[in-house]
Amino acid sequence: MGLKLLDWCHPLIPFPGSLYLETLYSEGIPVYRFIQRPGDLVWINAGTVHWVQAIGWCNNIAWNVGPLTARQYQLAAERYEFNRLRGVKSIVPMIHFSWQLAKNKRGTSSFLSTMGEVFALHWTATAHPSAVPSTFRLSHWVHEDKGRSRKADR
């Protein structure tokens, strides 16, 4: 069912309006709707397609949190790149986070800090090509077909 959901949603993300509930229901895709009351915490996993709508006056406070692991970072980086290529502004400061991750290597795996360096350079190269060393090539680090570091395969 997950692949079916991704295949259906891929051309629609970001959603221009509603989630087309009738289509989701008819395709057998699970939909959870609820009202979040004051003091309630809603936790959704990485990659979950979600839609938030106010039913009245509200203050919205959201945190993007996750464990500091290479997999979590990869998911965040992929989503950032997906949104960036579609002109969607990210609410997560991934470029700044990546540079900080590369700079402050204490407490992280060498693979995770290397991923931080690679993606920080990649995103900087996209915005300011002259600021990146000419020897840098993202394809040296990441398989296009697997989306993970070659160093992880060792």
TrEMBL record:
- Cellular localisation: Nucleus
**GO-annotated molecular function:** chromatin DNA binding; histone H3K27me2/H3K27me3 demethylase activity; RNA polymerase II cis-regulatory region sequence-specific DNA binding
**JmjC domain location, by residue?**
1-82
Q: What keywords does the record list, in alphabetical order?
A: Nucleus
A family per Pfam: KDM6_C-hel
Bilayer-crossing regions: none
A GO CC term attached to the entry: MLL3/4 complex
What InterPro entries does its record include? Corepressor-Demethylase, JmjC_dom, KDM6A_B-like_C-hel
GO BP field: regulation of gene expression
| Predominant location | nucleus
- Family that this chain belongs to: Belongs to the UTX family.
- What this protein is called in its record is JmjC domain-containing protein
* Organism the protein comes from: Echinostoma caproni
